[in-house]
Amino acid sequence: MKGQNLLIATFSVWREKKRTAINGMVEPLLTFFFPEFETIDLIDGAHPGDEETRTRFEYYQNKKLKKTDFAWISFLLSPFLKLQNTNGTQIVFKLRDFLSVLELSIRKRKRYDLFIGLESVFTLSGIVLKKLGVVKTVVYYVSDYAPNRYSQKLLNNIYLWLDRTCCYYADFIWDVSPA
């Protein structure tokens, strides 16, 4: 795939204006794919409970960060994100993540050979982009699958439905979860 375009959609925990190594897998993914891709666009949604609620876009070319930008949808949803900014699953953050991927594809107006979505909401947006012809191949990266993730039955059923949908429609599943 040398010389082609990669889009990674993930999240990470930020502390003191720096990305930490807690979840999100950003640095290992970039390090792994830098030799294979000329351009990598990264969507990094701040984790609920962080000091930051905006989604960051990073654009890499030839292994170097060329530009950093923030998703407009983060600004539009900012009041709701700040209200719900506690550690754990927050629906407004999931909506922000899904819409951020669509926003980046509209803003960049380019096609991607490979899309890697960490967890189901990011992957679902990649599947939509594939249906629209923006993405060629979708990888569903699963880092912490749990069949009984939520005690609320409805929330857990939505989680399982999202996971199942991504498993059916993604081209590949990259599962690092022991479950």
Main sheet record = 7 strands, mixed
What is the share of helical residues?
25-40%
Q: Indicate the overall shape.
A: globular
Between the first and last Cα atoms, what is the distance in angstroms? 30 Å
Q: In terms of structural class, how would the helical and strand content be classed?
A: alpha/beta
Number of DSSP helical runs: 6
The beta-strand count equals 9
Biggest sheet strand line-up:
6-5-4-1-7-8-9
**What is the average per-residue confidence, as pLDDT, rounded to a whole number?**
89
What is the alpha-carbon Rg in Å? Answer: 15 Å
Strand-residue fraction? 25-35%
**Element-level helix/strand string:** EEEHEEEHHHEHEHE
Uncertain regions spanning at least 5 consecutive residues: none
Describe this structure in words.
There is one protein chain. Strand 8 (135-142), helix 6 (153-169) and strand 9 form a beta-alpha-beta unit. Helices cover 37% and strands 31% of the residues. The chain has helices at 26-33, 72-76, 78-83, 91-108, 120-131, 153-169; strands at residues 4-12, 14-15, 18-19, 37-46, 55-61, 64-70, 112-118, 135-142, 172-175. With 179 residues, the chain is an alpha/beta fold. The strands form two sheets. Strands 6-5-4-1-7-8-9 form a seven-stranded mixed beta sheet, sandwiched between helices. A two-stranded antiparallel ribbon has the order 2-3. The protein contains six helices and nine strands, in the order βββαβββαααβαβαβ. The longest helix is centred in the middle third of the chain and has 18 residues, at 91-108.
